[in-house]
Design a protein that fits this description.
Number of helices: 12
Helix content: 25-40%
Order of helices and strands: HHEEHEEEHEHEHHHEHEHEHEHEEE
Number of domains: 2
Number of strands: 14
CATH class of the largest domain: Alpha Beta
Shape: elongated
CATH superfamily of the largest domain: Aldolase class I
Structural class: alpha/beta
């Protein structure tokens, strides 16, 4: 399929009856198949008026404060176009209605991408912003994003990469980690213990087969009391054990500061001060702060990041043929932002 340029091109968008997944392919995104159809109608009308190549400047702004993510995908979308693009850096903070991207060039060069650009920025910035809040709650403590299971697999890598932009130290999703330039990270799921029937049996096999450099983290809440199981595992693995992870389900009250505090104290008394306590399961910034105060030193965060609301983005045309313009309610002309930098496409 070639790039869509008007309503006559809709016939080029064919959806195969045996299509396996509903997510858009890279080519479909690049060719405009994920745009709103009214942009094709707009191009048809402007072409009829011989205005489709009008030089304009458009600015994109957010509807609330946050952290920008997604600019690399926007660059890929616009690469090769006759455009000048300015943007704030990925990972940079923004305030409500700050100009985060400015695009200048013939309107027909980017018209079909408005929907796509705004969607990329809205979702990725929402995830990065949530991750930044977690980062602030963790302080100098380590945390991973475990959110892939909560979203469609087509966007799981986008989400967890955005979490790394927001400050997560790693991602469990293999593709996301690769996109973020880090090694995929994770411990062990309950399924390993349930199938083996004993946490210690799994822990010993895990220890034996892992390279010396690997940090061994063992889940300790599957069968026994968390404290009893943690000490049992620590006694067996000794200095090989880096941390124990607790993921107490909500049906049993979840991971609480009192459990963490007791676990930390009893590991210390048993001679395992070197063993760290990691916490996962329904965590959010306020809970992380409480668990950290109780002695937790590492965290896995999933749904708080993956379920973050997108940050609505708006694109306004602000200059047409060198003249400042604006719709009612908006200010004509450019809205300056000292953080904007020209980017190479």
């Amino acid at each position: 399929m070639t790039q869509l340029k008007g309503l006559d091109d809709l016939s080029k968008v064919q959806v195969a009856s045996d299509r396996k997944f509903y997510s858009a392919t890279h080519d479909e995104i690049l060719n405009g198949a994920t745009t709103d159809v009214y942009f094709l109608r707009t191009l048809d009308i402007l072409k009829e008026l011989d205005l489709d190549k009008t030089i304009v400047t458009a600015e994109i702004f957010p509807r609330k404060d946050g952290i920008l993510a997604g600019i690399e995908e926007v660059k890929s979308l616009l690469r090769g176009k006759n455009l000048v693009v300015e943007a704030i850096d990925e990972g940079e903070s923004f305030k409500t209605k700050d100009t985060v991207i400015r695009i200048t060039g013939p309107y027909n060069e980017f018209a079909i991408y408005e929907t796509t650009i705004l969607g990329i920025l809205a979702s990725s910035s929402g995830w990065a912003t949530a991750a930044r809040r977690v980062t602030e709650a963790c302080g100098d403590s380590y945390y991973l994003c475990f959110g892939a299971r909560h979203v469609h697999p087509a966007v799981a890598p986008v989400m967890e990469r955005a979490a790394v932009v927001g400050g997560a130290k790693g991602a469990s999703c293999i593709l996301a980690a690769g996109l973020a330039g880090v090694a995929p990270s994770g411990t062990l799921p309950h399924s390993a213990m349930l199938i083996a029937g004993d946490t210690l049996k799994v822990a010993k096999a895990y220890d034996a087969m892992s390279p010396e450099s690997h940090q061994r983290i063992v889940l300790v809440d599957t069968f026994k009391d968390e404290i009893e199981e943690a000490i049992r595992i620590a006694d067996e693995l000794g200095d090989s054990l880096f941390a124990v992870r607790i993921d107490t389900p909500s049906e049993r009250g979840g991971v609480t500061p009192s459990i963490v505090r007791e676990l930390r104290a009893k590991l210390d008394v048993a001679g395992h001060k070197n063993v760290k306590v990691f916490a996962t399961g329904g965590l959010y910034p306020e809970k992380i702060e409480a668990l950290k105060e109780a002695g937790a030193e590492g965290f896995g965060v999933g749904s708080y990041i993956s379920a973050a609301s997108p940050i609505d983005m708006t694109m306004d045309i602000k200059i047409v043929d060198g003249k400042p313009v604006a719709k009612r309610g908006r200010i004509p002309g450019l809205i300056e932002n000292s953080k904007l930098k020209k980017i190479e496409l």
